[in-house]
């Protein structure tokens, strides 16, 4: 299953597409459905900007940036498909699926459907969608891979700072 990360992109894209279609058909804009009290609410809104509604009305800028990013991700995934960098490639697959999901709506309609809303006490987290989740989780995986790769390159790959067999690495007091 050498190309599983492409399937991650397809899965994120498909779930995002189906859920957005369901929201558009089931709820009017602004309508809410409480799923878990006030903690988790489905709220149908449209977003003409980027994450959390920033840079509203910049449709063509987002389309251009997204096309460049999508091309870069696909090129990098193809170039590194046999590298053994599973965490990095899985993260890129999630970002790819999320970016494609939001790109399709933005290109066709000039806006994306957002609907997932969480409230933590008095704090209401900005409303988002499945594509946004794929992008955020994917970026987190990419950052984790970068951190782990950096630690390996610096000789810190042993648990608890144990010394490498060749004497390199760091020794921590336990």
Output the keywords:
174 residues, alpha+beta, 4-stranded antiparallel sheet, 4 helices, 4 strands, 14% strand, globular, disordered C terminus
Largest sheet: 4 strands, antiparallel
Count of DSSP E strands? 4
Q: What's the N-to-C terminus distance?
A: 41 Å
Strand content: 5-15%
Walk across the major sheet and give the strand order.
1-2-3-4
Task: Work out the helicity level.
Answer: 40-55%
Averaged pLDDT, please?
86
Report the principal-axis shape. globular
Give the helices and strands as they follow along the chain.
HEEHHEEH
How many distinct domains?
1
Unreliable stretches covering 5 or more consecutive residues: 159-163, 170-174
Structural class: alpha+beta
How many whole angstroms does the radius of gyration measure?
Answer: 20 Å
The total count of helices amounts to 4
Protein model, in words:
The chain has 174 residues and is of the alpha+beta class. It has one domain (4-149). Helix content is 53%, strand content 14%. The protein has four helices and four strands. Strands 1-2-3-4 form a four-stranded antiparallel β-sheet. A hairpin with a 3-residue loop joins strand 1 (32-36) and strand 2. Helix 1 runs parallel beside helix 3 (86-109), helix 2 packs antiparallel against helix 3 (86-109) and helix 3 (86-109) runs antiparallel to helix 4 (130-153). The model is unreliable at 159-163 and 170-174 (pLDDT under 50).
């Amino acid at each position: 299953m050498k190309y599983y990360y492409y399937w991650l992109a397809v899965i994120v894209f498909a779930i995002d597409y189906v859920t957005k279609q369901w929201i558009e058909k089931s709820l009017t804009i602004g309508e809410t459905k409480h799923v878990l009290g006030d903690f988790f609410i489905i709220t149908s809104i449209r977003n003409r900007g980027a994450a959390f509604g920033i840079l509203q009305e910049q449709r063509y800028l987002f389309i251009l940036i997204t096309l460049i990013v999508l091309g870069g991700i696909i090129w990098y995934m193809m170039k590194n498909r046999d590298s053994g960098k599973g965490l990095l490639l899985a993260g890129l697959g999630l970002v790819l699926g999320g970016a494609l999901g939001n790109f399709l709506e933005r290109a066709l309609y000039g806006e994306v459907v957002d609907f997932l809303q969480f409230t933590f006490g008095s704090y209401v987290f900005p409303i988002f969608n499945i594509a946004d989740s794929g992008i955020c989780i994917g970026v987190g995986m990419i950052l984790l891979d970068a951190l782990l790769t950096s630690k390996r390159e610096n000789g810190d790959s042993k648990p608890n700072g144990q010394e490498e067999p060749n004497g390199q690495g760091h020794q921590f007091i336990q």
